[in-house]
Amino acid sequence: MGNKKGRRGWLIALTVLGVGILVAIFLALGPPQLLAKSETPNFCASCHVMEEEYDAWAHAGAHRRKACVDCHLPNDNLALHYVWKSIDGMKDVLFFYSNQVPERIEISGHGKAVVQANCIRCHETTVDHIDQKRLCWECHRRVPHRGVGSMQTL
């Protein structure tokens, strides 16, 4: 009898643990619809003070088919993509709702590295023979935000 109660207790504990893990994953990643919506440029522009950047992107030719996350988040590793999406997203929410958004938004050093890696990833066949020591937008000044913010045209 005692052995059955012990097994039943473990089964209940494992079930509760499993459900808890699933709930934690769901809460961490959000409902699939919210996750998908948060990958859109409209979502990014909804609470950022990014109207100029959004408008510039919307008229950006070929890059208009790309979403903000295609350039601004790591895309070579799904886990890192969602880790940085969470970090950057929470940082943006905190800045926005605490009225701490700077007048001019500058891309961070990490952000520059991510954007550069994504430029190279998308344009690999074009840039494989080019010296990659310079940042792509040092020459391509109108890509992608066309003279707005830290990638401003000289």
From TrEMBL:
GO terms for biological process: anaerobic respiration; electron transport chain. Residues 12-140 form the NapC/NirT cytochrome c N-terminal domain. It holds the Pfam family Cytochrom_NNT. It is found in: Cell membrane. Its EC number is 1.7.2.2. Keywords: Cell membrane, Electron transport, Heme, Iron, Membrane, Metal-binding, Oxidoreductase, Transmembrane, Transmembrane helix, Transport. Its main location: membrane. One of its GO terms (cellular component) is plasma membrane. GO terms for molecular function: electron transfer activity; metal ion binding; nitrite reductase (cytochrome, ammonia-forming) activity. InterPro entries: Cytochrome_c-type_ET, Multihaem_cyt_sf, NapC/NirT_cyt_c_N, NapC/NirT_cytc_sf, NrfH. Belongs to the NapC/NirT/NrfH family. This is Cytochrome c nitrite reductase small subunit.
